Amino acid sequence: MRALSAAFVLLSCLALCAFAPAQMLDPLAPKPSQTANPLTDPTASPGIQLLYQLEEKFAADTAKGGGAGFAAWFAPDAVTLANGKAPVMGHDAIAATATWTPESYQLTWKPEGARMAEGGDMGFTWGHYEGVSKDAQGNVVKTSGRYMTVWKKQPDATWKVEVDASNDGPAADCCSLH
Q1: b/e map 74-100, b = 16+ CB within 10 Å
Q2: What is the pLDDT of residues 43-55, one digit of tens each?
Q3: Which string of DSSP letters, residue by residue, matches 38-56?
Q4: Cα(95)–Cα(92) distance, integer angstroms
């Protein structure tokens, strides 16, 4: 059942792209400034601004609470997809794997874009993340890559993460929109 739920969420993401043309990038539109901060873009729609606000709160809770703060944002049927790892399915399983403390690991990220479904009840963000920890000898270990987070409005009107996908990758400036 969880596999079907995960498949449904992924298909929903594809449907967002197919059925929300008003939110899609217009290849003929003027190019955004490469220095513009999407989080403070005054031209962003209210739906996209909401997604950025959710990301900001999600990141703050993760910085303050570590893995527990991270896991608190996931829906009961959520899925995480990490580079080279098996999917983790369900809030409880995600919480069981997100056991780091802010002192042992700092996960930070910056959204670079967002799209909201026309119905306003589902959207996604993407951007760059960085993780910093120390190895057994006390040396700093950094990981970084790209991520995509799928958000869905829950029956109680709160917003939760349905899918969080990430992959190790190059530096943040490699993949800017042109």
Answers
A1: bbebbbbbbeeeeebbbbebbbeebeb
A2: 789 999 999 999 9
A3: GGG-TTS-HHHHHHHHHHH
A4: 5
Looking only at the bridges linking them, the beta strands covering 159-168 and 74-81 are parallel
User: Does residue 164 contact residue 74 with C-beta atoms inside 8 Å?
Assistant: yes
**pLDDT tens-place string over residues 26-74:** 444 444 444 455 656 667 899 999 999 999 999 999 999 999 999 999 9
Residues 6+ apart with CB under 8 A from 23: 45, 47, 48, 115, 116, 117, 118
**Phi then psi for 127, rounded to 5 degrees?**
175, -150
* pLDDT of 36: 57
User: Options 3.10.580.10, 3.40.50.150, 3.40.50.2000, 3.10.450.50; which CATH number does 2-22+43-175 get?
Assistant: 3.10.450.50
Confidence of residue 159 (pLDDT cuts 50, 70, 90): very high
| Percentage of the chain lying above the pLDDT 90 cut | 67
DSSP 30: P
What is the chain's mean pLDDT, rounded?
82
Q: Where do the DSSP E strands lie in the chain? A: 74-81, 88-89, 105-116, 122-134, 140-153, 159-168
